[in-house]
Design goal:
The protein is of the alpha/beta class. The protein is 35% helix and 21% strand. Helix 2 (36-43) crosses helix 4 (85-99), helix 12 (350-360) packs across helix 13 and helix 14 (419-434) crosses helix 16. The termini are far apart.
Length: 543
Amino acid sequence: MAIETYLGNKNLKKVGVPVEYTQEQVQEYIKCSRNPAYFIKNYVKIVNVDAGLIDFSLWPFQEEMVNKFEDNRFVICKLPRQVGKTTTVAAYILWRVLFTDQYSVAILANKLAQAREILGRIQTAYEWLPKWLQQGVKEWNKGNIELENGSEILASATSSSAIRGTSQNLIYLDEFAFVPNNLQEEFFASVFPTISSGTSTKVLITSTPNGMNMFYKIWVDSEEGNNSYVRHDVHWSDVPGRDEAWKKETIKNTSEEQFRQEFECEFLGSTATLIDGRKLAQIPFITPLKSKNGFDIYEQPRPDRMYVITVDSARGLGLDYSALVVFDVTEIPYKIVGKYRSKEISPMFYPDVIVNAARKYNDAFVLVELNDLGETVANIIQQDLEYENILSTSVKGRGGQQIGGGFSHRIQLGVKTTKTVKRVGCSHLKDVVENDKLILNDYDILQELSVFINKRNSYEAEEGHHDDLVMCAVLFSWLVRQEFFIELTDNDVRNKLYLENQKLIEDDVLPFGIIDDGIEAHEREDTVGPLGYTYSVKDVVDF
């Protein structure tokens, strides 16, 4: 009998071993092949922490999960901790590879060890199957298994390259909300288009919520009918033995906030966020009217509206984002009507993007953050592109930076994000959002806010996350506290801004000859910036 086992493992059948079925076994095999829940309840064994190896008696919500997996291509499950979600998916995967020829499955988790642990559960269940239900084993290790019928299972960490170049029939994303945001985005950008192009490929996602990330977006989009995912939601009380007494005991040993996130499955995010997590979870995001080249447009410009654009600049090296947000400030509540962000845009091209957006939105007022390369960006906007409605600030003693030049000699285009500016901006952002004076409808901004936390008496993104769009909102919130902003609806102020900016140009411009070639700066194919850089307007983002 030993020669019929795989590598001496008496619980595994090797390839090519003939099986003589009884009539009863044939009937059972047919039943199992047609009904995954029947197979799991009658033949799958799992390891229980208290009782050891036991039969997998599916709870009603687990059986419903299995049926949804079988009946739908895309399923997303929002589940509390410790409800057997991973074991349920593992049992379904086992059924799939046993009864479907040439079926490939990828198990992807936050860590490789976690993915292999799930594969280990499948292997344990497989070893305890009767031999007449098994396929012969061709490959059997910690990272993958391959069966005689051509089916296989791969375990890997979630990444954009994990399954690139392979053909998968089913992809399982375990605890997807805990995969780092950048890996979530890279995975869906590089892998998902190939998956969704098929007609039968399945994607199963299970997780406990962990803030407002890609898992959150997919879940909310499924509620709104904006994607093809079928939702499965489980309440902690659906698990036998969990009642109010259990809830009180659990909260007593942890915390109410932890219970809400891990068992009530609320998308709370960090406990130290600038905006209250419960408020963020209540704010709906919407699908842009148009998305192109990094721009998301929520409302097209209207002739009777006034707009403000705040700008954050980066170096275009694939690290931080260059970002801008377009606000409609015609009335309260203010609202976001467009946004742009890119990691690749050069600071020499970025001014054209900004001016293009500003001109489109009724010659919007533009406020540029001057930190890092912001000063270069602001100078190109004013001097090279000759855009007039760029806001300047002056430093007025203890009053700090204020919009407008006045009689001060310390005038600068844009604003430097000092501790005072950031503190005032953060404080007012919290006020306008939590009191519904600013409508946030953009997923990326909400996601950044969900990880914008208190650090060293200030606020910044959690490690591994970005806050470039949030800083645009912080600058806007600082701006609306300025006396000058209150007057923006007055037409006389537009003239005042123009005159101040003209004076600023006259004071700062160096004496050099100008050759007029009859071509506007923003129309030239090659433009030389104030630092001597040459950039091509052909490459500028057009939305």
